[in-house]
């Protein structure tokens, strides 16, 4: 693209999501640089790939899924802390996730993300959100900002739950679905993973929380308002 063709506004973006078809869809929706001003300079499907691509390309904005192999979006944020702290050329993160759970929103915002939008967002609104985050604004889908206000502004906000923090983002998602009464096959279908993987996640959750069965797990999750 020549300088004459470059849109009046321009932003360099990296897409991080473990579903290739979703990345392709986002690329098609917002990556038409001549029209939107968004230039997709890299993609990644897991934490290690994300850190490598972000470090190599130094984008202005990263669209970051919350649930990723290798530790989730929070781990990407942790390992990219130095890039976020660069005062001259900061890399800013906008979470883009199917989840609208309070713990997911609060987790990535605590990790350093500038905003959080769900995957129901339109392409036009997503482009606008990317540019706002580039300029340093905080951007949230409707009602999600309330989670952050409750967590950071309230004087009686609950402390960090150490038990919950032992779980990976994917384990939390499986935990929440188990607590809602989903069968393993239903969870596998919703999260695009195998039943065997669901079983492994449930076993890991039970072990980490020192629980014996899914009934105890459901009570544990309900007591923490995760359902």
Automatic annotation (TrEMBL):
GO terms for biological process: phosphorelay signal transduction system; regulation of DNA-templated transcription. Residues 12-134 form the Response regulatory domain. Residues 160-225 form the HTH luxR-type domain. The modification 4-aspartylphosphate is found at residue 65. Keywords: DNA-binding, Phosphoprotein. Gene3D superfamilies: 3.40.50.2300. It comes from the Bacteria. Coiled coil: none annotated. This is Response regulator transcription factor.
